[in-house]
């Protein structure tokens, strides 16, 4: 078995394994399919106004929303990052972890650490989270669709629109087959085969990676838009929303954004009463932008000298992240790299998934690993006072000398569905490019902790199953030994306890990580209404996962992409009636 030191590195990279040229976002060579994508600096005074819709954020929801609205209306999309096209670290599965480990200002991934001590990431690239995640595609639990009050017929029209363009059937590796059989032996039945639907039991879901390992992001959905009515500006970071406050209610009239050269621009809506600014910046970016624009708790805004446009105490509240814990599964047999393909949807309130293998190119092993590096002081294996030049150099050398055995094997993942524990998002400063302070309060509610324990017990059963041990060619290990191997790894900044392998509750608390399914901050009924219009403000809407009170199903990206299409269709039909059909 690989050394614990090597294993620590491997496990620390697990968030990278799950879900994009280091320090760059690729060349700006546009395919003929995307003539409407330009740099932020290209917006001149003659074309800065008269938009029917300004969409802030070209992410998982923003891209399908823009493509749909542009069929009938003039649309401007402002995306703070670059493009995913021609960037091999975004595009290819074998390179996916490099961008997640890149902390440079031009990285397609912006890392942040919650106040809980868990390392996390958010998309900073056209396509948003769909450009940096593990690619798993599965529809929402039908209960979620009913809960949010969506039109089922329109939902069932919107999912296939996404699926026909960017979703594929996974290769389904031998590792995934072994875990599938282990799940069935552990009682997670029946086997539902390959399906996009959310069904209790074990299933194989879709993926946005094709059979060549190439990623297809939400950005590709823009090709379905009307190029004559659609403008997408990249490297265009919106600083704040502009309001007209002379009437009875504040009214959004445009935005101020900064281009790639640091120059500020303004973009304005047309005079139409139904024209809107739509914020689709994600569960971190959307509440942050509302706060910076003057919508939020009065005391917090005044603390940063932000003029109050509208007092709303709920902006940034109710943030939640599905806690995940993992069990490392060593293997004497080399495994083919695979991300999430198999999932066990249990009646315990947990999801069991798996990933295996690791990219073994010289770049993936020897590159500068960003947030994993002692150079920036985030590696808790080297105490801050001991981070001498010699210690840093020794750590860097150890990364380059990692034995190949460390890249064999995989993980069984246990994720708590619909966590009851919630936290909040608060501003640290008024710089939109910096992360706000985010707290998720993992396991603060005992119900979440109870479900985590049940999930770990189930994951251990899967690892100990004959199907998995036969495939890995490893002897059946005790639960304590498995937990000991996993907990010694440096996977977060939470202090470890000596009873981690004796108490499953303590193991859950100390080894919690994220699978990037955080949501909330702009809940329906508190910040937006049922049509996602911001309460108390005209011509401003939110369309993204910040409105969710729970993550939809095992992975949210399918539903967030569908939501963009769904809301685009709904807005068109509400505004144009039968003329809105496309």
UniProtKB/TrEMBL annotation:
Q: Which family does it belong to?
A: Belongs to the GMC oxidoreductase family.
Gene Ontology molecular function, alphabetical: flavin adenine dinucleotide binding; oxidoreductase activity, acting on CH-OH group of donors
Please report the name of this protein according to its UniProt entry: Glucose-methanol-choline oxidoreductase N-terminal domain-containing protein
Q: Which gene encodes it?
A: Vigan.07G032300
Give the source's domain of life in one word.
Eukaryota
* Pfam families noted in UniProt: GMC_oxred_C, GMC_oxred_N
Task: Indicate whether Disulfide bond appears among the record's keywords.
Answer: yes
S-S bridge residues: 452-508
Q: Which InterPro entries match?
A: FAD/NAD-bd_sf (IPR036188), GMC_Oxidoreductase-Related (IPR051871), GMC_OxRdtase (IPR012132), GMC_OxRdtase_N (IPR000172), GMC_OxRtase_C (IPR007867)
């Amino acid at each position: 078995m690989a050394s614990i030191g090597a294993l620590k590195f491997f496990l620390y990279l697990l968030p990278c394994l799950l879900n994009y040229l280091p320090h760059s976002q690729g060349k700006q060579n546009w395919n003929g399919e995307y003539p409407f994508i330009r740099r932020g600096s290209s917006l001149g005074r003659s074309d800065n106004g008269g938009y029917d819709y300004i969409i802030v954020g070209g992410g998982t929801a923003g891209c399908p929303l823009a493509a749909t609205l542009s069929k009938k209306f003039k649309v401007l999309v402002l995306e703070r990052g670059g493009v995913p096209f021609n960037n091999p670290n975004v595009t290819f599965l074998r390179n996916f972890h490099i961008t997640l480990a890149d902390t440079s200002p031009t990285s397609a991934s912006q890392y942040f650490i919650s106040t809980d001590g868990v390392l996390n990431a958010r998309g900073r690239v056209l396509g948003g989270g769909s450009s940096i995640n593990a690619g798993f595609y599965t529809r929402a639990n039908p209960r979620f669709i009913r809960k949010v009050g969506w039109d089922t017929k329109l939902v069932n029209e919107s999912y296939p629109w996404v699926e026909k363009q960017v979703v594929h059937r996974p290769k389904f590796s031998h590792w995934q087959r072994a875990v599938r059989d282990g799940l069935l032996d552990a009682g997670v039945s029946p086997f539902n085969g390959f399906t996009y639907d959310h069904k209790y039991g074990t299933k194989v879901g879709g993926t946005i990676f094709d059979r060549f390992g190439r990623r297809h992001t939400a950005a590709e959905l823009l090709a379905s838009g009307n190029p004559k009515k659609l403008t997408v500006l990249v490297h265009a970071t919106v600083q704040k929303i502009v309001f007209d406050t002379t009437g009875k209610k504040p009214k959004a009239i445009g935005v101020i954004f900064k281009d790639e050269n640091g120059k500020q621009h303004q973009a304005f809506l047309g005079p139409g009463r139904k024209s809107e600014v739509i914020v689709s910046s994600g569960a971190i970016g959307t509440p942050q932008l509302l706060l910076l624009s003057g919508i939020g708790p009065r005391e917090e805004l005044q603390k940063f000298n932000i003029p109050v446009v509208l007092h709303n105490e709920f902006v940034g509240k109710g943030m939640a992240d599905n806690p995940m814990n993992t069990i490392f599964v060593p293997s004497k047999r080399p495994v083919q790299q695979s991300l999430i393909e198999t999932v066990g949807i249990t009646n315990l309130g947990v999801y069991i998934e798996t990933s295996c293998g690791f990219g073994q190119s010289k770049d993936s092993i020897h590159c500068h690993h960003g947030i994993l590096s002692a150079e920036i002081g985030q590696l808790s294996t080297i105490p801050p006072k001991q981070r001498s030049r010699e210690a840093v150099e020794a750590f860097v050398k150890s990364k380059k000398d990692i034995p190949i055995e460390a890249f064999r094997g995989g993980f069984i993942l246990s994720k708590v569905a619909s966590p009851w524990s919630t936290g909040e998002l608060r501003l640290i400063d008024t710089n939109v490019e910096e992360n706000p302070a985010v707290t998720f309060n993992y396991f603060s509610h005992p119900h979440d902790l109870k479900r985590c324990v049940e999930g770990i017990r189930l994951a251990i059963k899967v690892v100990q199953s004959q199907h998995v041990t036969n495939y890995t060619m490893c002897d059946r290990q005790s639960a304590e030994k498995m937990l000991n191997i996993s907990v010694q790894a440096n996977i977060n900044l939470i202090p470890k306890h000596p009873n981690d392998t004796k108490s499953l509750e303590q193991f859950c608390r100390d080894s919690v990580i994220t699978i990037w399914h955080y949501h909330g901050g702009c809940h329906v009924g508190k910040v937006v209404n049922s049509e996602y219009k911001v309460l108390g403000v005209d011509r401003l809407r939110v369309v993204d996962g910040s409105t969710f009170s729970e993550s939809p199903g095992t992975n949210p990206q399918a539903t967030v992409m569908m939501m963009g299409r769904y809301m685009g269709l709904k807005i068109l039909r509400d505004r144009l009636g039968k003329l809105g059909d496309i």
